[in-house]
Amino acid sequence: MKIKQLLILLLAASLLAVSCSKDDDDEINLPSGDFANGILVSNEGPFNNGSGTVTFISENLGSQEDAIYKKVNGEDLGNVVQSIGFNEDHAYIISNVSRTVTVVDRYTFEKITDISDGFENPRYFVAVNGKGYVTDWGDPNNDSDDYVAVIDLATNAVQSTISVNFGPERLLAKGNAIYVAHQGGYGQNDIISVINTDSNTVTATIQVGSVPNSLQLDDAGNLWVLSAGTPSYAGTESGGVLSMIDTSSNTVTAHLDFETSEHPNLLSVEGSILYYYLNGSVYEIDNSALTLPGHGILDGVNFYAMSVSKGKLYGTNAGDFASRGTLAVYDLNSKANIKTMTVGIVPGGVYFN
Amino acid sequence: MLTDNSLFLFLVLLLGPRLYAQTDSIIALDEVLLSDARLGQFSSGIKIETLNDSVVHNNSSTLTDLLQYNSSIYIKENGYGMVSSVSFRGTNAQQTAVIWNGININSQFNGQTDFNTISTPNYDNISVRSGGGSVQYGSGAVGGSVHLNNTLLFQNHFDNRLRLDYGSFNTAHVNYGTSFGNEKLALNLNFDYRKSDNDYKYLGTDRRNENGAFENFNLGLDVGYFLSESNLMKFYQNTFVGDRDFSGTLTAPSNDNYKDLTSRSLLEWSNFNDKKVARLKFAHLYERYRYYANKNTDNYDFGESNNFIINYDYKYRLGKITVNGILDFNTVKAKGSSINTSNRNVLAGIFLMSHRVTDKIKYDISIRKELNSDYNTPLVYAVNGKYDITDGYTVNLNTSKNFRVPTFNDLYWVGAGAAGNEEVVPEASYQVELGQNLGFKSYKFNITGYAIWSDDLIQWQPDVSGIWTPVNINRTRQYGLELQADVDKQFGSHQLLWKNSYTYTRSIDLKTDYDLIYVPEHKFNSNLAYEYKKWGGTYQFLYNGPVYITTDNTEILSGYTVSNIGLFRNLHVNRIDFHVAFNVNNLFNANYQSVAYRPMPNRNFQIGVTTKF
Questions:
Q1: What is the pTM of this model?
Q2: A263 touches chain B (CB under 8 A)
Q3: What range defines the domain where residue B187 resides?
Q4: Closest Cα partner for A56 from A75, A70, A74?
Q5: What CATH number does the domain containing B495 carry?
């Protein structure tokens, strides 16, 4: 008897779900779906053989679901899930070794399509004016075949490529411009390319520190670029540089230099405060500061990815890169660890849905 | 085959009394014929299984296939024919040494040997020596060692062997061997070629192994010449050329290609009499690889190394005690796309002693010390003995300390977010083993238990600034049990050979208490060969238990069983022997992976003809 009732309930619920998704087109910007209002963690997965996954964690950190793509779609996502980009209610999941961008509904994670033609070594995604832009290293042994692929988001196909300087990695959009940080693939590079999305051409390059690994916009519209500096094994070691770029003139208007042996990364921003990770500590710096902070706000951590949102800091630890990693959440006021959760193998990105 | 057997019987009858009389000079002679002499000497109580000529030649031509069905070693492959790595007694691939005619041939770059780059038909016998052997064989002989041996026959003969195989996935194999000799001179020449499209089905999907084609070529030459009754010169040469596309995985396509070339030469002069054997060896080992991340371009990563060895070995027998001193100088020069030209010089001194206490009790003690230009190598030792309690019942006991040196990658790698570390030191490992052998006329049983403790294991991990670098961080413990039961029976025109091996293995990371990945707790293999007059059949069975694939033991790759079946017929036409065989591999079409996300072949067929003339 009870089982029957349960069945009917389930049936009713699924009918409801179907009608909901049908109604989606008419609704305005109200996220619905199992994975709305929460955190998405992209897990690269084992490097050689296997699949990356996406973990969903509810906003109050109360519930967690692992490998949601596989759960919803019944198939593996792809090898080495590098990053996720978003546009409206779609998420674009980049599987680097699989050379695929998987398009899903960002709230239900139902697969829309795979884009697998046009990529060789895809890294990061950003959307501007109905186009998706994906950085791609090309052949990592070749310094001159790097590009940004342009995806028509209506047809989900690569429509053109923009040839760029060596080693394009993270990118962000401001207005109609895209700023691409050239970390330099397996080697080193030290520039930011500016792409005009009306003409899809590189209109400027800005020199920053060596190995620019992360970039953010603050609430005043300044572009901040964090460079790690040249690693010790690559000849002459140099320290990291935090550069501020005025996007109206595309020039570096201020920069703060680290010690030669200091190689920071994972720049995050909330409002006018910047956060970065260096040698086991997280540092915080105001966008008007004239010097680098002397001490960290969190010590003894080991972060592989980091994001800040609504007064909380989210850091992942990839452990030995061959087992499940963790996501630790900190309150930025009290600096207290609110919760630490086990996520997937090599958690490499934290996103807010 | 029958004629071979009768010939053998004839030889035994004729030579038997003389062989069993065993004059000392004949012992010395037997010994100098084999370059890997210590496989027989100073190995009391060591478990050594030898796969002889007929096993080597009636199996598939890769060392991977041969050993996973015929030994207790666990082997995993990145798809059929791709990179193959072994785990011997729960240790890793760098802790298994591959020994070519007495010389350690593990790669200078990654410290291991890819078992799919060894063409087995080139060798007359292949031995699997279980347990530590660093005193005698140097770095990496921790879990055990695999010995590839060529033998020389100093009697009047001229034999030729030609084998042709063709099978599924457009797989073709040609092997030609010729052996010529008289009392003074012996010569073997061997040629092997194998290629395959290797585009097998991924069972349960509509896909194929799209980038898995391979082609390899091996040339071997062995020459021996008696300068006088007590002076023998020998020369061995082997060259292998491999060209493989590397398969993708279920989640990632591939257009990788890998080309490798190895060339090994050994010149050995032995001077011997009934009391002593002195040997002087010069060897040169060359290895080169080119890895194309995209085979459609000309860009590749490469590594190239040259290794010169001078070895002087003097053995002397004083009654029941035999002593042996060895001085070995080894100089390696390596370079690569991520390794600046670097050098390593190693001088090793080895002392071995063997004592036959009584006819039933024998033991050996040996030590080795290396002086190395790069790092400090520990003094290692081995103590091993055996006791023949009754006729057919033997107890073995041994203990040893062994090591594995950092590779050129570990020390000198630069680039792609990774850097070698010149501070790493050799891994050290201790072990103890107890074995019992029971042998009757047609039955043989062995049970062996062992435990291995390893410290300072080298592991690559990101440093504080995210650069991957090796450190001596890990500690492990392996323990296990090996069981073997063999039947070799002949009745009338029937001949039955049945070999079974079961291993129980535990391999524990002592820092986390988790099991190491890719070590099956249970492995079982069985080989049945039955022959009646001119007909025969074979059945091979392999079970590899489930393995953990994440270091926190949260993910498991299922275990699998694979069966191969074969039928053969021996023919004798115009004084030429033919052996025609038909084999079905993966008879039950099992869908299995030995490495996660890398499917192995579906059911496939092969027909082959071997002729001897």
A1: 0.87
A2: yes
A3: 4-612
A4: A70
A5: 2.40.170.20
